[in-house]
Write a structure and sequence with these properties.
homodimer, alpha+beta, DNA-binding, 34% helix, two-stranded antiparallel ribbon, Arc Repressor Mutant, subunit A, 5 helices, 140 residues
DNA sequence: TTATAAATTTGTATTGTTTACAATGCAAAT
DNA sequence: ATTTGCATTGTAAACAATACAAATTTATAA
């Protein structure tokens, strides 16, 4: 059972805490919607009016570098962030743009790259297509 | 053996050919370096001086929509394009930024998403890490 | 406590990619 | 020859992301 407390999470990843960093990590942990920088910035701006967008950029990048968050480049328009760092895949609906978590296929552990002449630090698996709710709308 | 002729490729994917489209597809097929829009634009500008960057954007997007090319969003800085559409994975070196093709693990065909309540149209698998040549440099 | 140094945050200016859109060009069909 | 429709071009604009320097906060040492 992983600890989803913002402060603890920061400390576990060796990130020095601050009001802004705790708030941003807290947002990530509580909103599994894969928010963009702007979404985090707008949402937290209500509580921290002085918050700078640059801080959100820097902080999310910092989290990703320390492995405390995942940077997702699935949508070519904007980078999204994911506070869940346990291995999982993603699905993006091409119609509504929603991004959701997907359990990894069971066989995936054994799926190592063939003839790899490189050191793997991150593995990314994602699917694109049409989500159920968009498919249902199309039939109406 | 797939046909790597530009005109034939366009027709196979139902894309109406034009001088620009043929040139762009030809470039993709002959340069497996996963070029960006700008790289294609600069390279073809020598032969087609009137070429517009907008056309390159539109055309590569069109190719991707028709399945004649793959849009890669691995590097968060820029979108790359891949003329190879047979299933394969990618590796990006975090140090030198190079992007290369990787053979899919054999078990991957059976790797379907678990409990998928969506229609999969594309599957993307890639790795990030350090390539051999960068790792060698680090040891010097 | 006070002074000093280090780290963090802020805000503005800037860069660079991508899109929107209107005008133009071109080729096939009538 | 005219029309129709798609493709291309080029400019303007939107927008994400970064650079940077000033301001603020926090930590450390005297």
């Amino acid at each position: 059972m992983t600890d989803r407390n913002a402060l603890d999470t920061l400390q576990r990843y060796g990130i020095h805490p601050s009001v802004q960093r705790i708030a941003i990590m807290d947002y990530l942990l509580k909103h599994c919607t894969h928010p963009t920088v702007d979404e985090v910035y707008v949402a937290l701006g209500k509580d921290i009016p002085t918050l700078s967008k640059t801080t959100v950029y820097n902080t999310l990048r910092l989290f990703a570098e320390h492995g405390a968050a995942q940077m997702l480049t699935i949508d070519e328009k904007k980078v999204c962030f994911d506070g869940t760092v346990t291995p999982h895949a993603h699905f993006m609906c091409k119609r509504c743009g929603r991004l959701m978590d997907v359990q990894l296929p069971g066989c995936f552990q054994e799926c190592q790259p063939v003839g790899a002449d490189f050191i793997v630090e991150e593995t990314h698996l994602y699917y694109k297509g049409i989500c159920n709710s968009c498919a249902a709308k199309a039939n109406a």
